[in-house]
Amino acid sequence: MNLDYLYGINPVKEGLRGRRRPVELFVDEKAGGKRIDEVLALAKDLNVPVRQRHRQDLDRLAGLPHHQGVVMSMEAFPYTEFEDLLADWQASGQDGFFLLLDGITDPHNLGAILRNADAAGCQGVVITKDRSCGITNVVDRASAGAVEHLAVCQVTNLARTIEALKKVGFWVYGLAAGEEAQPLFKASLSGHLALVVGSEGEGLRQRTRQLCDGLLEIPMSGVVPSLNASCASAVALFEVVRQKK
Predict the structure, then answer these.
(1) Domains and CATH numbers, the chain
(2) Shortest CA distance to 61 belongs to which of 12, 129, 116?
(3) How far apart are CA 15 and CA 74, in angstroms?
(4) What would the pLDDT profile of 66-90 be if each residue is shown by its tens digit?
(5) Residue 200 near residue 106 (C-beta atoms within 8 A)
């Protein structure tokens, strides 16, 4: 069985509360305190086996020393099929709200974006299989465990995914800068909506830009011309939340 290893108190707690099956919890034999006790109590409630280990063993399992004394083995991350993502949205009876990522390669950026998406109430996040970071323990930690509660779909062709969303009534808007883009805060972001965020360096690919119903630009008043992908996603996602409320 393929296993993932989560590390850090918050990611492990969310892993215990999430939809994946925990296999075993490893705790630093010298660790203690209220936060560790909370993790142990959750594991006990779920009948997850707990083993005390030397800190060096935890360093090896996590791949780094910054694990806060807890590491947990989990079944591999379960990506959601695109068809299931659409079916769950349709069954909900709510306005659709998806986030599409066009080539995010940095795991810390991806984790932060997934945390934003969860906080904003996205029903699903779509990432690409190629030229993109997948869900790893680094991503999980950077998301503070939010990824354990999100439907994340991996697709081969983002262009086909955008076309499929438009066929079922979604408006698709890409975050970009330039003359074709309208200011984010003047756009009407209601109904079934998908936001597309481009890669850290290149932004949206040309084909993606062409398929979007419109491009949105975050107004910038300083010298630096843009925000990084995770910050830009937060601004755009919560503008949608603001308008929907």
Answers:
(1) 3-75 (3.30.1330.30), 82-244 (3.40.1280.10)
(2) 12
(3) 8
(4) 899 999 999 999 999 999 999 999 9
(5) yes
Secondary structure string (H, E, C) spanning the chain: CCEEEEECHHHHHHHHHCCCCEEEEEEECCCCCHHHHHHHHHHHHCCCCEEEECHHHHHHHHCCCCCCCEEEEEECCCCCCHHHHHHHHHHHCCCCEEEEEECCCCHHHHHHHHHHHHHHCCCEEEEECCCCCCCCHHHHHHCCCHHHHCCEEEECCHHHHHHHHHHCCCEEEEECCCCCCEEHHHCCCCCCEEEEEEECCCECCHHHHHHCCEEEECCCCCCCCCCCHHHHHHHHHHHHHHHHC
Instruction: Supply the pLDDT for residue 50.
Output: 94
Quote the CA–CA distance of 245 and 243 in Å, as a whole number: 5
Which range, of 61-65, 86-90, 116-120, averages the lowest pLDDT? 61-65
Report, as an integer, the average pLDDT of 178-191: 88
Is 106 a residue whose pLDDT tops 90?
yes
Instruction: Compute φ and ψ for 244, nearest 5 degrees.
Output: -70, -30
The pTM assigned to this predicted structure is 0.89
pLDDT at residue number 147: 94
